[in-house]
């Protein structure tokens, strides 16, 4: 389903079934595909079936491959459970997610928004703040993926009537829509919907349009602008099998340096949501076959990177503070390519 497909034109149950079948064909992408399938089941109203999918994913975490983001799956499961009456179990899972201190902002946002949706504003504020403190302390520029964390915290603080702090100010600067965050998150907005004054209603319509613009902007970038990274052994195999590609990759060290330089240049130009996606020769050959093209064609490389990113294979860049470098060296990013 395309992100701009109207919800009323989607058979969510059928789409979930299709994604489950696709996950069986591409086990390396099963986690991302089954999470999307669970989302469709939630939208269809079949929340118990969505929980079964989350449980299926979590049970696979003990297998040889494991899960890439178990905290995200647990957060989604908790949010779903609370929506159909399993509050106690949801709360227990949320506390477990918070205690695990995930380095990915998405689980923090999901559990905090779940608390917020059920009027647990103090707990939501604590959760947003914990995530921000963990992921954004001493970070010069918040990564694109952390923006919802700051926006959500700003929204809850407005509802609690708390004064602006440094992170609220940072959220204001990151927000680029015509209507400010203070206006969008104003608790009094709801009262304007019942006003008899046309000016009040017109102002609220303007705010809602700004919010819709922000959501559309996010949906237009559902996956990162990703740079293709070949691990050392894969790059050696690639250029040996397809000598014309040697001109693209003079050496492994230059390959890594080119990726980091390109990402920094994109970031400096204001491009958000950047990532690195690892390639493998077998999947690249399969992609070339599906396109009816030769793997030796250099123009196929960016298409391959985009396809992998769309399948959820990209790793966000820059990595979170203290996280391992994207290059696979095992060293922290700040001591490797982040120097």
UniProtKB/TrEMBL annotation:
InterPro entries referenced in this protein's UniProt entry, alphabetically: SEC_C_motif (IPR004027), TPR-like_helical_dom_sf (IPR011990)
Protein name: SEC-C domain-containing protein
Species this chain originates from: Streptomyces lancefieldiae
